[in-house]
Design goal:
The chain is α+β, with helices and mostly antiparallel strands. The chain has one domain: SH3 type barrels (Roll). The chain is 21% helix and 51% strand. It is built from two helices and six strands. The protein has a six-stranded antiparallel sheet. It is globular and about 40 Å long.
Length: 90
């Protein structure tokens, strides 16, 4: 039951950041780490979407789950405050 509360807290915190510029650092395993910048587009019950600008004029949507943040396989950094959001957003 506590895990659900933590995931709900993560979602609530991300709801407040919709529209903000964010840097995403995603651990893809085997020493592969993707770093991307984008805008937090929308949150859903189990995932959130980030609009990423790959190359000039080319955008794509990338989705992550709240569990990714909880397990620290994804870290978010908000540009307006340069404050890191890690793990359970504590």
């Amino acid at each position: 039951m506590a895990a659900k509360q933590v995931l709900n807290k993560i979602r609530e915190d991300l709801d407040a950041l919709v529209g903000e510029k964010i840097r995403v650092k995603a651990n893809r395993g085997r020493k592969k780490v993707d770093e991307q910048e984008g805008v937090l587009e929308k949150t859903y019950p189990h995932i959130f979407l980030i609009r990423v600008l790959d190359q000039p004029g080319q955008e794509r949507l990338v989705s992550y789950s709240y569990t990714d943040i909880l397990t620290s396989s994804v870290e978010l950094e908000v540009h307006r405050e340069t404050e890191e959001i890690e793990g359970a957003l504590s």
